[in-house]
Amino acid sequence: MEWDWSAVGDFMPQFWDGLLVTLQALALGSLISFVLGLVWALLMRAPSRFVRWPVGVVTEFVRNTPLLVQLFFLFYVLPEWGVTLSALATGVIGIGLHYSTYTMQVYRAGIEAVPPGQWEAATALNLPRVRTWQVVILPQAIRRVVPALGNYVISMLKDTPMLMVITVLEMLGQARLFAQEHFQFTEPLTVIGVAFIVISYLASLLLRSLERRLVR
Amino acid sequence: MTSGLWELVFKGIWTTVQLLFFSAILAAAVSFVVGVLRTHRLWIVRFLAGFYTEVFRGTSALVMIFWVFFVLPPAFGWQLVPMWAGTLALGLTYGAYGSEIVRGALKAVDPAQQEGGIALSFTPWQRMRLILLPQAVPEMIPPFSNLLVELLKGTALVSVMGMGDLAFSGNLVRLALQESAGIYTYLLLIYFVIAFLLTRLMRGLEKKLKAGVGKEPTREVKVPEPVGGGV
Lengths: 216, 231
Fold this sequence. Notes:
Chain B: Keywords: Amino-acid transport, Cell membrane, Membrane, Transmembrane, Transmembrane helix, Transport. Chain B: Pfam families: BPD_transp_1. The structure holds 2 protein chains of 2 kinds. Chain A is mostly helical. Chain A is about 80% helix and about 0% strand. The longest helix of chain A is centred in the first third of the chain and has 39 residues, at about 5-45. Chain A starts with a helix and ends with a helix. By secondary structure, chain B is mainly α. Chain B is about 75% helix and about 0% strand. Chain B contains 8 helices and no strands. Classes of the chains: A mainly alpha, B mainly alpha. Chains A and B meet through helix 3, helix 4, helix 6, helix 7 and helix 8 of A and helix 2, helix 3, helix 6, helix 7 and helix 8 of B.
């Protein structure tokens, strides 16, 4: 195997572009998954089973089917329905929706872990329902689940290369482009492979320190 | 959809099932070997096994697949059949996740069991085989069940390399029909059914194994471990 350092140098500008897109997709995807996951988790606590049942079925379905096919679905079917979005926006929605079905379970566990005394105290203080959620339950629940949510951000990072299939030029997309132009596969693919390991390692260190501060 | 196109889809299902089967076997083998080695008494063995886990968990499955398809052949001068390349990439990646499950389950066995084995002067291998694994394996089944579904979802990635699995056949059908809502809905449903069957299968296996050590199966799997979370 011959390793060509000059190819690495040539790839670098494209690598930074790809990294930027990857991080953008990651940030937006995380945001969507955090918000949607919370929405699902709250809907699953709705009093009516006509709300709980469909939400349960839909999220179970999304969680158990491949993100890749979901991305194809969004990318090719949404335009047929008259919704045109950019590739990146489609990808971000796809990844956010997919992971929201995971974060919803994290939130659920967090909400269930709030001691019943907190609910009773809120009732005793005559707090309205919305206030109870806002100032008593959610702050405690979310604090507990931050590390678990962070783990999903890391797994989301590792799923961002899938956005390549819907023409988003994130890291893997850039690497493939470079490889096809220069006919050098080894260097760009290895560079991004190492980049993924480094980023996820740094993120997990960050997460561990966050965990120490939040969960006591 | 015509019957010819359906045939294409069925071929895709067959390829996906085959790939799932082979990579699940490889992943299980890797998980047990690496997971057990991570409890080895020599630090260098533990370190190497841990290093393997960090590297393969740290990178993305799709990048891994690209690497196996494009970097390995020129580096070593041999080319793998797509099925084996896919099996290798998926098996090694998901095996790294699985090794964490094995390690966790081994650690969760009551230490008194280990000590009992030492007191009876069992060799380390006997302790592993006769005491630790029979108690740890049933506990591994629920997380392994989640991982198996993740692996099923992972098999769709090989379609990017042009391997004729279910997702790939879906793309062909879309090109043939110039219409995507129908075929992708079918694809998602088929994947969902396979995932459902796998979960049922694992539930049955858990029941059987736990009956063997006198335990009740867990009623519901709570939060699935984030696959690929953390390093």
